[in-house]
Amino acid sequence: MAMKQTEKNKIVEELTSSFNASDFIYLTDSSSMSAGDTNKLRREFHKNGVKMSVVKNTLIKRAMEASEKDFSEMYVSLKGNTAVLLSMNLKAPALTIKNFRKKTKRPLLKSAYIDSDVFLGDESLVALSELKSKEDLVGEVIGLLQSPAKNVLSALLSGKDTIGGVIKALQEKNN
User: Fold this and answer.
1) Can you say whether the dihedral through the CA atoms of 81, 89, 11, 64 is positive or negative?
2) What is the pLDDT of residues 79-136, one digit of tens each?
3) Residues 149, 71 share a domain
4) What SS3 class is residue 101?
5) What is the helix (H) or strand (E) element at residue 114, kind and residue range?
């Protein structure tokens, strides 16, 4: 039974809205996975805050073209069976795929859109799973900035007897 045009338009509108709202979009190939494995994968994604939907490539492309973002580099990955993964966490989809593939060879990463950068091919999975979030990077920078100040304060506090002793010695010398 063919999908009606109104149904297709509704899917494209919803997908376009999701693409506009998300900074982390993954396209995967889960073809040749058993129904049982696909259901396990869906549960893992859901548990990790990732929304998975299998949509026809033509509808995905229409939604990407209607989006305010530039997905043109990803069009080459719209072949075969495609699952769209949406997440608020940039690493959650990559880590979920990586962990799931310890038991099976699928799903394969086709492409990913991360904060306007596009990653193509399954070989990008390791890099995506190791990316640091903005929060991680801000925390590291703050730690680096605090470190010198902490070192100076620590040196001053640990040497308070020495500084006091030096000042006392200088006062006695002047008398």
Assistant:
1) negative
2) 999 999 999 988 999 999 999 999 889 999 999 999 889 999 999 998 898 877 667 7
3) no
4) coil
5) strand 108-114
Determine the Cα–Cα distance for residues 86 and 92; give it in Å rounded to an integer. 10
Annotate 44-77 with DSSP letters as a single string. Answer: HHHHTTEEEEE--HHHHHHHHHHSSS--GGGGGG
Select from 169, 151, 64, 72 the least CA-distant residue to 118: 72
Residue at 49: amino acid letter: G
**Torsion from C-alpha of 102, 103, 104, 110, nearest 10 degrees:** -40
Same domain, 35 and 84: yes
CA 6 – CA 72 distance, rounded (Å): 25
Domain holding 147, by residue range, is 135-174
Provide the pLDDT for residue 97: 96
Of residues 151 and 100, more confidently modeled: 100
DSSP 27: E
